[in-house]
What we know:
The chain is mainly beta. Helix content is 4%, strand content 49%. The protein folds into three domains: 2-68, Immunoglobulins (Immunoglobulin-like), CATH 2.60.40.10; 72-278, Single-stranded right-handed beta-helix, Pectin lyase-like (Pectate Lyase C-like), CATH 2.160.20.10; 287-511, 3 Solenoid (Pectate Lyase C-like). The chain has a 29-stranded parallel beta sheet that branches. Strand 3 and strand 4 (35-42) form a beta hairpin. The radius of gyration is 23 Å and the shape is globular. The two termini are 34 Å apart.
Amino acid sequence: MIKVVYIGQRFVILELENEYSYYNKENYSVYVNDKFYVNDNKNIIGIYDLEPNTDYKIKVDKEEINILTKEETFCLHTDNFNPYKDGINNDTLKLQSAILACPEGGTVYIDKGTYLITSLFLKSNINIYLDKECKLICEVDRSKFPVLKGLVKDGNKELNLGSFEGAEADTFSSIITGLSVKNVTIAGRGEIDGRATLGDWYQNHHQVRIANRPFGVFLNRCEDVVCAGFYIHDTACWNIHPYFSSNLGFFDLNIQNPTGMPTTDGIDPDSSENITILGCYFNVGDDCIAIKSGTFDFAKKYLKPCQNIVIRNCLMQAGHGGVVLGSESSSGINHLTVSNCLFKDTDRGLRIKTRRGRGRFGKLEHIIFNNIIMDNVLTPFVVNMFYNMGPNAGHEEYFWTKKKQVVDETTPYVGDFTFTNIVCNNVSLAAGVFLGLPEETIKSLSFKNVIFNYKKDAVPGFPVMIEHKEKMLKVGLYLDGVDKLLLDNVKFNGQIGEEVVINGETNVTRL
């Protein structure tokens, strides 16, 4: 069954509705108006280079659908602005002029060529289309970038422009920057190259020099934005950062960053809502998708949770975590559904990282994983309330002690998690490690139809980032500080020791 996910002016996103994870069981052929388009096997199908306001017949093997692309008021080609397109001379002003000149409802078509830029700023009610032979390459000299101030004041009024790791902070403008824009699409098979390895972005990355590192795409207080089809890579920090934004779609993206590079996540929704991430490929140096909602002071000021997020038919090829919550999560993260995804060679599958001091203004709850395949994931499930990295890292005894502390506004809350229809092959360290606080335990874990197959030649390693960490090897589910555990048709093949290791008091139900 073919489902239409999104129709744009010059592209359409389709989804094969089935029980498979990322890949369809068999290859298929796509025809557009009876003309061969592609042979593929992914569950998400992106069709590009269409004409606006045009009827199309799309055939996927034997199934046909008809679509009408959206209207477009005007197509403004960037070649009209005489860009250099040589990757040497800076084209920022020329491309920005095209964006500003584009009429409402129109498309800025970035033509074939290589464009050297610093930052392009979006405006509302336009589309940006990247030709398949278009390449935006980023300037690497930080002194040439504008700075988005964390907080600008005008009398008793404030304007928050920049954000970094859960706080209002001065940050360089990103390659694509949207500030309070609405109704925008950025689509096409073009390339966005951050070229971060050519600059000093990864050197002493914790040190703020002029401002914090820029992102690939930064959407601050934006609404109704769709990103589809393009290849984005080698960014100075997170590839895509939605912040205080809503109604966003990220479809059929290829997102990559160098292995081992710090804070080079894929997509990081931050205090945002109503987000759909479909058919994206991740191969990054840090977390593939990291969902955030600010640090303690930020939450106390804004209390803006990250919620109503759907992640489906994505491939997490490499990264520290596949889908991660935190560590900046003080405003809460809730109603997250991850389904039909494939995790390969990541350190962890689901990863929750929080600690004392993050606060309980918002809760981490209503998290669902369904129909997932994990292969060579060191530890498929990690929920860690003693996380010791990131802003104001928790190295003091208060953060890591197992002695019960007073529950107050600084104590985080971690609620319910449901895992169904999941196969984890080649597990090395542990099926799952769940570390709740003695004063505020993890509320409930539910596993149904889950299989853990352990790697024969696995070697010991550290499954969680805590202050006094210990190596594990082929451990089952390890629980310390969990209220309830439900196991329904859960199988372990090749673990060392007990299938479930429990420290403290946990109410276990086996069906």
